[in-house]
Design goal:
The complex is a heterodimer of chains A (839) and B (102). Chain A is an alpha+beta fold. Chain A is built from 24 helices and 20 strands. In chain B, 40% of the residues lie in helices and 17% in strands. Chain B is built from four helices and five strands, in the order βαββαβαβα. In chain B, strands 2-4-5 form a three-stranded parallel sheet.
Chain lengths: 839, 102
């Protein structure tokens, strides 16, 4: 029937019917002919077509039954006529053989549940009752009558013989066909064993009948073994083989039934009943065994499913816990702890370096087996974007882990993969936030870093950690002549490497010169790659192990003005986020370097101007000692306009002045020069302080750009011990009286700064200036301090001066004042001028 | 107009610019509120002086509200600018007070 199915499957309905007809007819003709032969030789052994027909009906839908019935009728009549039966007998025979399978199949189906499942006991019993009993008995009513009419004989014996012959055929031919269809896979897989069982049965049956041994003694063990070992199919096939042999042997006069003294057909019928009983008992036994085995298997599988569900639940609980793990390291630690706690294994390792090849096995464990240190199982951790690492579990013993353990670990591996990916994502976001914060900080710090060195320090300090914990970082700039790269800072390198970091001629092939020349970053993921590309620089890499290197050019306009060289001792992946961040840093640093250059140029000019108009040493003035101190602002980009002047005038007088031009840079330095020179000229022309300031104000309004300056003027007459002074918005002059050691602020002289004021009147005051008295003039850099009141600042200067040893050097006094009182960092220029009457 | 708590060389130009922006045609008085300013260096004073000049050119009075005993007042006194700039002890006084220095 399997063959039939395969043959008729692809065609249309008529073709199928035709094929069904042909197959049934052929099988029927073959069985029928076999039957005729045995009848004629006197050895009747069942009627095989009875099994074929009922199986055909049970296997085909009811609408195709007519094809089967037609095949039976046509073939039966044909075979009968060929064997010289008269037409009436042939037709009657055909009727009997049509009624029989119809009655058998219908009864079997009617008994409940449609087509019988022969692997179950109810199915088998229905089949035996319907196809094995009802069908043959119904067919036998007609068949026995026909036989009695045509050949004579006792009708009941003929009826019994018919039933026995057809019944055994239903059992040993029909049942195998039906089972064959149901158990095709089993038969295909174990046909060798089935052949062996059939061969053994056949051989044993032949021997048993020949030697007349009691049959059951030998067959029951064999059939029981078949039942246990292979199942019902083996039993049924063994039964078929046994039935065939038993039939032949009994008909040929061998075996117990042959010697009962009964007529041959009756003996055969009895033998057939006996065989049928044996086969049925074994079949039921086989069903029982199969059922028991299945029950045990189901129980076992239910237990395994329970354990697996348990494992999955535990893994899911772990997953919920992992969801809160902030970093991948936390994920790894939690997984190791949980797995060790649940399985009691010796060692759990979560390796989070992605396996570049990924795992071809998908979710399966990539590698496992017993080893000298116990059983090891490795599970690939696979995220959505590929491998994220590996989970290794080592048991204390070498025995294989249970399915539940494996299930658990598999689930853990999946959950770990997801958790690692999530944590990575979170960490990446965190890193991105940090990078943004670092960029903001860098922007601020670089804004006030005014020299390449200061920029180098900021970069070394702030950038290393932000670019993924870089171990070394160097900032190089292209020299003014463009011939070399000069390293202005290098941090984090080993001593050995630091020695190698020397200025590089541009024509030397290195990562740095390449980056500057091409304007493209040079990325070297491995030391080996470095050595391959720059063999001449191998000694630089030698000290740094298995490192990654990155050199990013600092681009301004179209040219690279330098580069940042970064080294990591661990190999880097160089993700797009990291590279974008480094690019942004390089941009900031490049701009800062440009600013530093501009500042340096301007600073140089302003310094030259300032130095030109303000020599360190003033010319000696009779009767006076003069000390000065000028200190430029520290780190600021402002060059102030602070100045002082001390000049001997005709008539033994001395012109003393100090001033502060607001503003910064070259403009302030220019204004300062103008004011200083104009003041000098007016003083030489004999102007007294108040008049001098009033005229100077008019001059500054026209010739200077700053438009706002403070200034104090004192005209000393050492011989007379007098001092005339005036102030244009400047800080009060201080005088330390030699007699009392007290310090006096000369604040009464008033007038606004030199600037855009319409009403500007300057008053002039006088004071005595005794021998040893010290006049102190200073600019606001000395006293202005954030958070301090300006009066407090003045008081501090005053106190310092009062405490000062009056015979010390005036230069030293000025310097000490600046050192002691100037704000740190010093944001503004400071000028201090001290004058002592010496005689 | 409220002016920063600290005025120094880093934001002096901003102060000048912000005040200049307030000198729109039609305005007759602009009050610069320095009552909460605690620090004002020479650059800051220069910014105020420049603003004063710009205001005068635009025909506008720039009045500065400066706390009577605060640090800014002291700086202005030391630089003798109280007679030149229009200084008032509070924003109210500056807004409603008579023209001319207080």
């Amino acid at each position: 029937m399997a063959a039939e199915r395969r043959l008729i499957a692809p065609s249309s309905e008529p073709a199928r019917l035709l094929a069904l007809f042909a197959i049934v007819a052929a099988a029927y003709a073959l069985g029928s002919e076999l039957s005729w032969q045995s009848f004629s030789s006197g050895a009747a052994f069942g009627f095989p077509p009875a099994g074929v027909t009922v199986a055909a009906l049970l296997l085909t839908p009811r609408r195709r039954w007519p094809a089967v019935i037609a095949a039976i009728a046509v073939t039966e009549i044909g075979v009968d006529l060929q064997h010289q039966l008269n037409v009436a007998a042939a037709v009657a025979s055909a009727a009997a053989n049509c009624v029989e399978p119809l009655a058998g199949a219908t009864t079997t189906i009617r008994l409940g549940g449609g087509r019988p499942d022969l692997t179950t006991r109810p199915g088998l019993l229905r089949y035996v009752a319907g196809a094995g009993c009802a069908g043959p008995l119904a067919g036998g009513l007609i068949g026995a009558t026909v036989l009695a009419r045509s050949g004579g004989g006792w009708w009941p014996a003929l009826w019994l013989q018919w039933w026995a012959g057809d019944g055994i055929a239903v059992l040993v031919v029909g049942a195998p066909i039906l089972l064959w269809v149901q158990r095709r896979q089993l038969i295909a897989a174990r046909w060798r064993e089935l052949v062996l069982i059939v061969a053994l049965t056949t051989g044993l049956a032949v021997v048993a009948f020949r030697l007349g041994q009691p049959l059951a003694v030998l067959f029951l063990p064999l059939l029981a073994w078949a039942a246990f070992w292979v199942g019902d199919v083996a039993v049924v096939l063994a039964g078929t083989a046994f039935a065939v042999v038993a039939n032949y042997m009994t008909a040929a006069g061998h075996g117990e039934f042959a010697h009962l003294g009964l007529p041959a057909p009756t003996a055969v019928a009895l033998a057939q009943l006996y065989i049928a009983t044996i086969v049925l008992i074994c079949w039921l036994l086989a069903q029982e065994v199969t059922g028991r085995i299945r029950a045990v298997q189901e129980q076992e599988s239910a237990r395994l499913q329970r354990e697996a569900a348990d494992a999955r639940r535990m893994a899911a609980e772990l997953g919920a816990w992992l969801a809160e793990a902030p970093t991948v390291t936390d994920v790894a630690e939690r997984v190791s702890g949980a797995v060790r706690g649940r399985l009691g294994v010796r060692h759990v390792a979560v390796d989070l370096s992605p396996d570049p090849s990924g795992s071809p096995a998908g979710r399966a464990d990539v590698d496992s087996g017993p080893g000298p240190d116990g059983y090891l199982a490795s599970f690939a951790l696979l995220g959505e974007s590929g491998s994220v690492g590996r989970l290794d579990v080592r048991w204390a013993g070498a025995s294989e882990p249970s399915a539940a353990e494996r299930e658990y670990l598999q689930a853990v591996a999946e959950i770990t993969s997801r958790a690692v990916e999530r944590a990575r994502l979170r960490q990446a976001e965190e890193r991105e936030r940090e990078r943004l914060a670092t960029l903001a900080t860098l922007t601020r710090l670089l804004a006030s870093a005014l020299t390449p060195q200061a920029i180098g320090e900021v970069v070394a300090e702030r950038v290393r950690s932000a670019v993924g914990g870089a171990d070394g970082l160097a900032l190089g700039v292209v020299s003014a002549d463009g011939a070399r790269i000069e390293w202005i800072s290098a941090a984090g390198y080993s001593e050995q490497t630091r020695e190698q970091i020397v200025d590089l001629p541009m024509d030397e092939p290195t990562a740095a010169t390449d980056a500057v020349r091409t304007g493209e970053p040079v990325i070297l993921r491995e030391s080996a790659e470095y050595v391959r590309r720059y063999p001449g620089r191998a000694e630089v890499v030698a000290g740094e192990g298995r490192s990654s290197w990155l050199v990013w050019p600092l681009i301004v306009g179209k040219n690279a003005i330098g580069c940042i060289s970064i080294m990591w001792q661990r190999p880097q992946q160089f993700g797009p986020g990291q590279l974008a961040f480094i690019a942004a840093v390089a941009d900031l640093v490049a701009q800062a370097l440009v600013r530093a250059q501009i500042y340096a140029d301007e600073h140089a000019v302003a310094t030259v101007l300032q130095r030109a108009v303000m020599p360190r040493m003033t010319a000696p003035i009779a009767g006076l000692q003069v000390g000065t101190c000028y200190r430029q602002a520290g780190t600021t980009w402002v060059i102030g306009g602070d100045w002082y002047d001390a000049l001997a005038l005709p008539g033994g007088r001395a012109y003393l002045a100090i001033g502060d031009v607001a503003g910064h840079g070259i403009a302030a330095a220019e204004d300062m020069t103008q004011i200083r020179n104009a003041g000098r000229a007016l003083a030489i022309a004999g102007y007294l302080p108040a008049r001098l300031l009033a005229d100077l104000r008019r001059i500054t309004a026209t010739v200077t750009a700053g438009q706002f300056a403070t200034m104090a003027v004192a005209l000393a007459e050492p011989a007379a011990g007098r001092l005339a002074y005036a102030s244009a918005g400047h800080l009060p002059l201080l005088v330390r009286r030699a007699k009392t050691g007290k310090v006096e602020a000369l604040s009464a002289a008033a007038g606004p700064p030199l600037g855009p004021f319409d009403e500007a009147a300057y008053s002039q005051r006088r004071t005595h200036f005794a021998v040893g008295d010290v006049l102190l003039m200073y600019t606001d850099g000395l006293i202005e301090r954030r958070g301090d009141d300006i009066a407090d600042g003045i008081a501090k200067v005053s106190d310092y001066l009062a405490a000062w040893s009056p015979h010390g050097s005036l230069d030293v006094l000025c310097q000490e004042l600046v050192t002691a009182l100037a704000a740190q960092p010093q944001l503004d220029d400071i000028c201090v001028l001290a004058v002592r009457r010496s005689s | 107009m409220h002016l920063p708590g600290e005025i120094d060389m880093t934001n002096a130009e901003d102060v000048t610019r912000d005040l200049a922006a307030a000198f729109r045609p039609g305005a007759s008085i602009v009050v610069g509120d320095l009552t909460s300013t605690t620090f004002c260096d020479s650059a800051g004073i220069r910014a105020l002086a420049l603003a004063h000049q710009h205001a005068a050119q635009a025909g506008i009075q720039l009045r500065l509200a400066v706390a009577a005993d605060g640090p800014v007042r002291r700086v202005l006194e030391i630089m003798d600018l109280t007679a030149v700039l229009a200084i008032y002890p509070s924003v109210e006084a500056a807004s409603s007070g008579p023209a001319g220095p207080a």
